[in-house]
Structure to design on (402 residues):
């Protein structure tokens, strides 16, 4: 047991070339730990996240909150009390306002890491997964970026591959490697490659919402694989198109559309292509559409639940069968834990995810291992802030022979 000697916060770079907050905690024993805050760019309205800044000013404000509000409340407290300290974090106020999650989350995670180290464990071991992990999480790998992440509003935000038939995590990733490189070659041949997006997925020079499915399938087949090995997924990030109870310019559906038209459109896609994963098909406010959507797939709520246990409890009825776990949507490790427990009670799958603006920090991989994620979503396999997270899992599952 050791008390907190110091807590400092400073700015580091995020993958979108903007500053973000990193917190460093030092215990009396000399143990140190740090954690960085990721940032979303397509944030839901129920997120606690309050740092949609373009200029970094909110980061300096967050640094001041850490220095003047959090540090005085934390210094001298025992690191073993980190779950209690999460409550303190959520109750603290700066200038009369609750602390934003780019303050609460890096503090909460850095403290949990410091305490784990203090007792001779890494975070995942401390959380409890190491002895129990019997299956691998399915990686949902974002190969093509559309929407705001890919600067192409005609395409869905994410086109993912799910190597669900792999017998080990490393086999899943090696299939993704082959598919990714074949995809790049195929895109080049067709003159469709326009760059790489925020999450490492390719950016395409096409306005056909279905072209990404065709080319992904072609690339899966060129890789000697079929839909028995690898299926497809989409993140529609639908909240961004929802205005006054209508969807405006939903990818593939130009103009104003009712929820029922979006639903039919997505059902047709799921019948035409081997799609097994659909995230945020509807807005977080369009609960009736969620409830009547009857496609057989992983139906995942991201903006819908915002990693919030109460919200999950209130709107889970038939809405989905899985939930994104993005700790910065809710604020602390303990809040995240509560949501995971609630998800398990409801029989929901958990998808542990990065954010589109992220750092090379890997605490989300540690959480995915510790809490035994059903799925993970860390972007494509070709940008350092994404590969760092996959590599952490590759190291872990190699030891486990999974
Ligand atoms: P975000 O996007 O991190 O920009 O919110 C990721 C997602 O919607 O899953
Ligand atoms: Zn999403």
């Amino acid at each position: 047991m050791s008390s907190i000697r110091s807590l400092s916060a400073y700015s580091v770079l995020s993958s979108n070339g903007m500053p973000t907050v990193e917190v460093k905690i030092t215990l009396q024993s000399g143990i140190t730990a740090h954690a960085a805050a990721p940032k979303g760019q397509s944030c839901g309205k129920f997120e606690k996240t309050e740092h949609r800044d373009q200029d970094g000013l909110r980061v300096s404000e967050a640094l001041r909150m850490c220095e003047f509000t959090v540090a005085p409340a934390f210094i001298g407290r025992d690191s073993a009390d980190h779950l209690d300290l999460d409550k303190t974090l959520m109750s603290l106020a700066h200038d009369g306002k609750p602390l934003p999650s780019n303050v609460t989350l890096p503090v909460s995670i850095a403290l949990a890491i410091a305490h784990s180290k203090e007792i001779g464990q890494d975070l995942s071991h401390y959380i409890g997964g190491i002895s129990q992990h019997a299956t691998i999480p399915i990686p949902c790998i974002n190969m093509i970026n559309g929407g705001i992440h890919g600067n192409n509003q005609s395409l869905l935000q994410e086109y993912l591959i799910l190597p669900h038939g792999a017998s080990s995590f490393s086999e899943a990733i090696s299939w993704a490697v082959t598919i990714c490189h074949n995809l790049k070659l195929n895109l080049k041949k067709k003159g469709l490659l326009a760059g790489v997006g925020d999450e490492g997925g390719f950016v395409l020079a096409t306005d056909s919402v279905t072209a990404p499915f065709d080319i992904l399938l072609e690339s899966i087949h060129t890789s000697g694989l079929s839909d028995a090995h690898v299926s497809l997924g989409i993140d529609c990030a639908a909240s961004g198109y929802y205005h006054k109870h209508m969807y405006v310019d939903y990818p593939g559906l130009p103009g104003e559309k009712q929820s029922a038209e979006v639903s039919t459109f997505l059902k047709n896609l799921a019948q035409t292509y081997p799609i097994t994963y659909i995230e945020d098909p509807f807005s977080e406010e369009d609960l009736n559409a969620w409830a009547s959507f009857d496609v057989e797939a992983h139906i995942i709520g991201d903006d819908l639940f915002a990693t919030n246990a109460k919200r999950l409890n209130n709107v889970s009825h038939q809405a989905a069968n899985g939930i994104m776990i993005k700790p910065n949507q809710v604020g602390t490790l303990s809040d995240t834990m509560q949501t995971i427990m609630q998800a398990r009670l409801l029989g929901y799958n958990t998808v542990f995810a990065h954010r589109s603006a992220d750092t090379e920090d890997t605490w989300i991989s540690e959480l995915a291992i510790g809490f035994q994620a059903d799925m993970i979503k860390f972007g494509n396999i070709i940008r350092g802030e994404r590969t760092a997270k996959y590599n952490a899992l590759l190291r872990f599952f190699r030891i486990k022979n999974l």
In short: The chain is about 40% helix and 20% strand.
